[in-house]
Amino acid sequence: MRYILSILGILLVVIAGAADETVQDRLQSVDGTIRVGVIQSLSRDGVVTMTPGGTVARESLWRLYLAQAKSSAMGGRVQVTGDHFDVTAAEMTIQDGQMTATFLVGNSWTRPLAGVQAFRTGLDHGEAAATYRAALAAAGKVDRLIALSGTGAVLSLEGEVSGYDGEELTFVYRGEERTLKAAKVYGVVFAARPAGGGGAYRLVLQNDGWIDADAVWLDAESVGLRVGGDDYSLSRSLVRMITYRNPQMQALSEMEPISAESDAIAGARLLWRRDANALGRPLMIGKQHFASGIGLHAPAAVTFAVPTGAERFVATIGLDPVLGAIGDCEFVVERDGEEILRARLTAADSAHSVSLELAGARRLTLRVEAGANFDLGDYANWGDARFVMGSAVAEE
Question: Would the pLDDT of 150 be above 70?
């Protein structure tokens, strides 16, 4: 019976799906308030001008959602990871110690090669992918090239990358400069470099890549950003969301838990997820999408240390619609081991807002317990789960 239910769940997940579109600009404040309209501008000092709505100061700002459907035109075939970014670009070049990623015609971004950690092409090869991941996890003192030989064998070579134009890669190997066709290149992991800071802002691009920036400003046509002391400009149409890391709050998905546990009754055992449901899909409750939060599958629990100064835990809870009307579980919140919330919700229920006092708590546990139908469909989402500091506290 357990395996039949599990297979049924998988089939239903494959069938289910939803489109993610933003048809109007939205501003989300740190207290959870959402304003809908047209975002006219974001100044360099963090003041947002919105119609209607007037101005919003940076102290109240959390996220800006820029109006547009997710664009398929911003495709990409080169994944570039760096000290402040992880982007997918249509093209990427390396020349004279600079990396230039091109998203669309007329929209490119150049960074010093010293700030690039790795890149990989669109080459599909399982063994090369595993070799690349291993190299990325243990970057050494020199660059490492992962490529295919003429016979198809995976090569992992140490040396120095001096150029790349999308057609060929130039690589100094054992003191000799060599050229390799780009079609044979899986990726390059550059010599270990100091990690950059996260930045006060994060830009999420239309293809889900991201760039961390120290400052961001925008107008009707473009988004400006400062990274590592340099200013850049991107078309506003490339940017889907801007998040300000407001010191008045702390998203749980940006924290490391003290502990996490999960089990299974009838379905598969699934671990907790950051900013996604337990299957790794976009975080949703009903038709509402959440850019951040925690995804669990009952029965499961995850525990976090409460940051100093946090006065409330705030979230929107409910079941993910991935299995339609299937799902029934209990959401439980424990403060230092004491239960302070228990809510029984089904897939038919709408999202439920939670705002709980912490009262000097040291630990907070989010727990989900299976209801009817064993644990089938119990994809329990905690949308925008966050700790809110004193001066930003607002009842929801």
Answer: yes
